[in-house]
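Problem 12. The chain below contains 329 residues. Write out its predicted structure in token notation.
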Amino acid sequence: MKVLILAGGFATRLWPLSETHAKPLLLINGKSILAHLYDKIPAEYEVILLTNKKFEAQFADEIKKINRTHNTTIFCEDAHSDGEKLGALGAISLACEQFHINENLFILAGDNILPDLDLEKLACKEHEGKIVVRTVPNKHEARKFGVIEPAQNWQENPFNFEVATFEEKPNEPKSTMVSTGFMCLGKDNIPVLQAYAKKSPDALGGIFMELLHQKIPVKATTVSGDWFDIGSFTTYLEAHEKLQTEPVLCDQNTYQQNNKLSGKVFIGENCVIENCRLHNTIIYPNTKLKNCIISQSVIDEHCELDGLDLNQKFIRQQTKLINENPQTI
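Solution.
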């Protein structure tokens, strides 16, 4: 089996944080989203990571950090912005061509966290496609995703059931069962993907509409537990609060003095935190905070903040803000 990880986006909705960090490299519970994903991939599987020129070096460093250089190849689009991208299906098609892929293929969204993902349950037969699905609370919420209509008897085997229809972000969804961005494509259908990508290179879920149109079987498997599609600051902080295992998690070489920490707080390596009150906040490495009250916020690397009261803020890398008349902490 081969695994393709989709990590080529520029995550403009997460700016300013994503100006300098690829979204799969954002930190959750002390390690990158990508590292969480690799926890689900057996070490013997060959991985091809699809990314772009802007973040290629960052991904190379991360692959070394998590000790997966032995089974990972980085395949890089020559793109530095969204307007230059090939599109998800276009990039997958090109990778299949370049690497002469002729075996079943897992395709995994690099910006999603699905702790209960089981690749064995996702595996499909050579002539099939398969999708990991979740049920969302209502059809209004389902409109944000690719929506499947399951076969009538799907509850008899919720880990391997037939998909009747698939629609990409429909205005009137037929169900509340949605695609999570994790899928498997049988090797017989790689030529179908390549042909479809030539006319529709952007819509990843469109390949399943094409398979169904051609009467090719599409299966689905349900997964329980948490699911976070890290597409906004809100979902990033929700994932942080839910998935960080300790109330306070500190990386190496941090210095703290006279602080009040509550909720879930992450403090990156080489940070100095003094006389601060922090609540549900992520502090990236090499940052100095003094006399601050910070809640529901993300502070990027190499910042220096003194005397600030911040709530639901995202502070750009290398920001320096000093309040000469701070309130008492």
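Discussion. The longest helix spans residues 88-98. Students who got a different answer should revisit the alignment rule from Section 12.3.
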